[in-house]
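User: Here's a chain of 336 residues. Predict its fold as tokens.
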Amino acid sequence: MKSDECLSFVTEVLSVLKSTNQCEKVFSLIVDRLFRLYACQTCAIVVVDPATEYLHIANSRGISLTFAKEFRRKLATGAIGKLLWTGSPVLIADSTTMREQSEELKLERPFRSCLCVQIAVDHRTLGYLHVDSASPAAFSQDDIRAIQGFADFAAIALNKSRLYEENLRLDTVDHETGLKKYPSFLEKLHEAAARADASGEQFAVLILDVDNYKHIALTYGYESARQMLREIAGIVQSSLRPLDAAGRYGFDELIVLRSNSDEEKAFSYAEGLCAQVRSARYAGRGIQTSVSIGLAVYPAHAGSERDLLLAVKESLYDAQRSGRDRVVSPTRGPHP
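Assistant: Prediction complete.
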């Protein structure tokens, strides 16, 4: 019966593992199912923090939240150290006969029997999976293979999550538009503000909102609408100078940093973008659209990056409210 349950749980874990990059969901499922399958006193996934090389509890059952939060253990040289270095499982059938090892492996509560297996991928140790029971001989050699399988799922989930986060950090391009992702754009904004503070120059930030995007998507299909957005992004990209930057701000919004620009220069640039977008035809289907643009200038309209972005959003709101296909700044009203 336990083997049937185990197979069912494996199928469940695999299904979740395939569908998410969030290792927490997989961890939670593994811990819950093992806890039920073996009637555990404690089940925990303990992982190595790559930044500190300390062990911490990533997910658990049978452990208080306070203990789990405060748990922080050095990589040991004893039973845990051997497990982490060599991958050799640690099985304790009766803690009364192995008191020293049992004390080392104990988490929050003493146990009578315990099994710990390595969590590793590509020959790199990521942590270990701990199960224990208040009863002696709750785990046997026959259980090692099954529990190691769950540990391997945890390893794949953790590695997948870390790779995904690393790719997000390294990949600065929004592939739907070809422009920068917003966090990468913000780095350029920080640099521009620092240059402006040091040199006294001004720069502008613009947000472009594609008018009637949802209506176009419903009329021509979302793929055509996305193609239109890519082509509008191409118009913006072609207008940039070396110190300028552009990024994806929202679903149908683009954001532009225009270096060395006062309000008059920025307004003229924005009106030129409006004219280009208005005159083009998109997605090979003759689609027509326009953009509403809000802009603000640093430091003329705002003394901080946060206030600058707020001023730009307020200007964009005024542009949309006043009829679209126009440019608005904090001191200049809508100009269609």
